[in-house]
């Protein structure tokens, strides 16, 4: 449901939630690499390359060789990527309102707190497995 609402609200920008998440990470961590982006957004490492390829084709990000290891590509946001982030950020309140329309303010706070707990307990790198 949240993905569908996000897609409806940003349809004109042709941006998926995963692409949006990757843009945020690249904005907050200029020069990061694909593996780190994958880790920070909890996305599969084997397919993050496809996500980054699409962002590069849209001219939202740039890949540059690393200074120490030229095989590693460092990721940077282009001005167009910053513009897209600003446009989505402007739509964020409406997206959140639609997602939480049937939930009270106190329930929203509890929900966000519980999500935070789940992420910190079960995030990538956690020694606990949700499959045990």
In words, what does this structure look like?
The longest helix is centred in the last third of the chain and has 21 residues, at 79-99. Strand 1 (61-65) and strand 2 form a beta hairpin. The chain contains 6 helices and 2 strands. It has helices at 2-9, 17-28, 34-40, 45-57, 79-99, 105-122, and strands at 61-65, 73-77. 60% of the residues lie in helices and 8% in strands. Strands 1-2 form a two-stranded antiparallel ribbon. The two termini are 28 Å apart. The protein is globular. It has 132 residues and is mainly alpha-helical.
Determine and state the CATH class. Mainly Alpha
What structural class do the secondary elements suggest? mainly alpha
Mean pLDDT: 88
Number of strands: 2
Rg: 17 Å
Helix content: 55-70%
Number of helices: 6
The assigned CATH architecture is Orthogonal Bundle
Q: How would the global form be characterised?
A: globular
Which strand order spans the largest sheet, edge to edge or round the barrel?
A: 1-2
CATH topology: Arc Repressor Mutant, subunit A
Q: Extract low-pLDDT stretches.
A: 125-132
Q: Give the CA-CA distance, first to last residue.
A: 28 Å
How many domains in all?
1
Order of helices and strands: HHHHEEHH
